[in-house]
Design a protein that fits this description.
- This protein is of the alpha+beta class.
- Helix content is 18%, strand content 39%.
- It has an 18-stranded mixed β-sheet that branches.
- It is globular and about 60 Å long.
- It starts with a strand and ends in a 12-residue tail after the last strand.
Length: 305
């Protein structure tokens, strides 16, 4: 089984062309391949190119736990770079169909940078989805692990829970009530530990029937935000394109940032541009790591419980 490995700011995926598969990937095979001790190791698998009625290329995205993701910004950039490496695309914009909708991508800078039109962010509860009456899910409360957090929910083809953390003094929160400003100031700095402790609890919270990705957000200024990420089905991750898109959209929706936002993550920075209708354009780097062949021998073993 041949594979190509890439990372996008430390978020790594394996690309597998379905023509190289003897049969469809089973859930246990996905888990084994992605395992960092017993398999190749990755944050997921990109299966493509697949036939599509809506775009030149179809793509399926698998999480390390074997579940399937509707959309992944980093995954889309990586898959776009793979198509470019295989000479299936050139300098012109092209379309990819995912379970979360059709996106358009452009590869430039010798393959090192990819721009993706991610689609429109929605804050509507019925589209995310999130339980309760239909509404825009903004500045609501959620309790997990003995703590209460303020969050906003959004979708860009996949669900996101953006936990609104500290706001630096230069962020214009003067329009908020003093109680809200005090609450934000009282929250601790976002951290990897916070994401690992509370992220999995929020991912599985009953408010989110399809589970959710989680971002812990800090606004630095009008053009910069910082996030720590717990990714649905994958866990703590160094970077995420869809998480960057959702967090930036929330910061702009709350009036804390302008339309052009640099999203700072442990793995690096993604540039986000927000249109009038919350259409997201994402730009970030991609690096090729390796290519090789997965031995069928690993599928005769079982992962430890």
């Amino acid at each position: 089984m041949k594979f190509w490995k890439y990372h996008a700011l430390g978020n790594d995926y394996l690309v597998i062309d379905p023509k190289n598969l003897p049969s469809a990937l089973a859930t246990e095979q996905v888990k084994m391949i992605c395992h960092r001790n017993f398999g190749v190791g990755s944050d997921g698998i990109l299966l493509g190119p697949l036939p599509s009625q809506k775009a030149p290329f179809g793509l399926r995205i698998f999480n390390p736990d074997g579940s399937e993701a509707e959309k992944s910004g980093n995954g889309l950039r990586i898959f776009s770079r793979f198509l470019w490496d295989q000479a299936l695309v050139g300098k012109d914009e092209f379309a990819i169909e995912t379970a979360g909708g059709v996106v358009k991508a452009t590869v430039f800078d010798g393959g090192n940078m990819v721009r993706v039109e991610m689609g429109k962010v929605s804050f509507s509860s019925d589209r995310i989805p999130i339980t309760g009456p239909k509404r825009e899910v903004l500045n609501e409360k959620i309790s997990v692990g003995g703590r209460e957090f303020t969050f906003c929910a959004a979708t860009i083809g996949n669900p996101h829970c953006v936990v609104v953390g500290g706001v630096t003094p230069c962020a214009p929160d003067s329009t908020l009530p003093e109680t809200a400003r005090a609450e934000r100031r009282a929250l601790p700095e976002i951290s990897e530990a916070m994401a690992k402790e509370f992220g999995p609890l929020m991912e599985m919270h009953p408010n989110f029937p399809n589970r959710t990705n989680v971002q812990f957000l800090k606004v630095r200024d009008r053009a910069n935000i910082q996030i720590e990420i717990w990714e649905r089905g994958a866990g703590y991750t160094l970077a995420s394109g869809s998480s960057s898109s959702a967090a930036a959209a929330v910061a702009h929706k709350l009036g804390l940032c302008d339309r052009k936002i640099s999203v700072h993550m442990p793995g690096g920075i993604i540039a986000i541009e927000i249109g009038d209708d919350f259409a997201i354009r994402m730009t970030g780097g991609v690096t090729k790591v390796s290519e090789g062949v997965i031995s069928s021998e690993i599928f005769g073993e079982k992962l430890p419980a």
